[in-house]
């Protein structure tokens, strides 16, 4: 059966630091992350009078409590679009960081602002990358979640961002850093699947028809191909579950324990205990999910994106099974990063030196084309791409064209161009002036709407002079 059309969105929180940022005139106090975040958002607040704004590409950019700027992509109905929109977010934040660094310099602070697309900051605080998937209301949500959790636990052998863990016997490379933090944070919690899926019921759509599945356990992805695989494979497993296929035979006895065990085992062969008493490794489980997805799709007319996801899924598993990591070491974050560290080790003839390793790991996640590694690696073919630079540049101002994001983006664009007050969230559009009604857009799949056309026309129309009377 052909994959169902689905809405996807990615929320990415960024770590923020200022290198060396010692103010020359204000004593020796370094610039805190909070302060750096305020500098970062100065222009956003000046333009939108808020640190929580919707942009003309349909995305949401905001600074929550704490100091992690967040970019939530607009709704996409294709995972390739998710990649493009997510990368556009990096570009937007990079521009803000450059401007904020210039403001810091004006205020006598040396040092640049760095934004890190990672999951743990230098103080050890964990932050997230949340995946959003639209699912139909008619299914049994608890069952869907229960049967998805073991897939989420084991997919990190492909989609983990990779990290070095310090152990008493020395540094060890593992698939995911976030998993370790999730485990530490939640090992005492009673609801064992809680940290993987946020169960808050906030569909941002017609609640009679839809739910929004909010996956919060994944690593942020730097490589576009990892983002593509992460969202694509999860969408395909959701297809399976929504078509009525049961995956209950793969439910884990203790998912929280397993999330850490899987992260730590680069062979992916450690047996995990299933609820029914059987034992399967993460590798075997992922092979099973892939086999069931392929059986489900048998004979279907697949898109290029689906084919690319399936091919990378299969090749990633082969790389783990055979230990031939070079099969995916330009596409999957953990393998790209491992190759980087291995090369460093060979060049310098020593094991992971803590300081150098930490610096290399930071640079991997630094989204700046100047200070981070990704831009150079992409240019040299060491990190594969999905989107072209032109597509990413365009997505900074152009929303996805096939979902509700187009309505929102076009409206925000018109309101900004004509300097009209407006209020927007995922489902509401309102022109701030008196007498205008709020337009409710409950269908995230709808990219045309006459009510929104009228709203855009009203936003673009010349305003009557105050008092409404014609000049005498
Ligand atoms: N109906 C939908 N189904 C799936 N995803 C959606 C839907 N509507 C919006 N999204 C996506 O969900 C994400 C929502 O991001 P947002 O940061 O606002 O999350 P939230 O969970 O609502 O709020 P917060 O992060 O403040 O707790 C966006 O990426 C958006 O594109
Ligand atoms: Mg959010």
From TrEMBL:
One Pfam family from the record = Pup_ligase
Q: Where does ATP bind?
A: 60, 73, 426
Give the pathway annotation.
Answer: Protein modification; protein pupylation; Protein degradation; proteasomal Pup-dependent pathway
Q: Where does Mg(2+) bind?
A: 11, 62, 70
Q: Where is the active site?
A: 64
Q: What class of enzyme is it?
A: ligase
| Reaction(s) this enzyme catalyzes, per UniProt | ATP + [prokaryotic ubiquitin-like protein]-L-glutamate + [protein]-L-lysine = ADP + phosphate + N(6)-([prokaryotic ubiquitin-like protein]-gamma-L-glutamyl)-[protein]-L-lysine
Presence of keyword Nucleotide-binding: yes
According to its UniProt record, the EC number is: 6.3.1.19
> Does this entry carry the keyword Secreted?
no
Which InterPro entries does its entry note? Pup_ligase, Pup_ligase/deamidase
An example molecular function term from Gene Ontology annotations? ligase activity
- Superkingdom: Bacteria
Q: Which residues form a coiled coil?
A: none
What family classification does the UniProt entry report for this protein? Belongs to the Pup ligase/Pup deamidase family. Pup-conjugating enzyme subfamily.
Give a short account of what the protein does: Catalyzes the covalent attachment of the prokaryotic ubiquitin-like protein modifier Pup to the proteasomal substrate proteins, thereby targeting them for proteasomal degradation. This tagging system is termed pupylation. The ligation reaction involves the side-chain carboxylate of the C-terminal glutamate of Pup and the side-chain amino group of a substrate lysine.
Q: Which miscellaneous remark does the UniProt record hold? A: The reaction mechanism probably proceeds via the activation of Pup by phosphorylation of its C-terminal glutamate, which is then subject to nucleophilic attack by the substrate lysine, resulting in an isopeptide bond and the release of phosphate as a good leaving group.
Under PANTHER family, the record lists:
PUP DEAMIDASE/DEPUPYLASE, PUP--PROTEIN LIGASE
The protein in question is named Pup--protein ligase
Q: Which organism is it from?
A: Georgenia faecalis
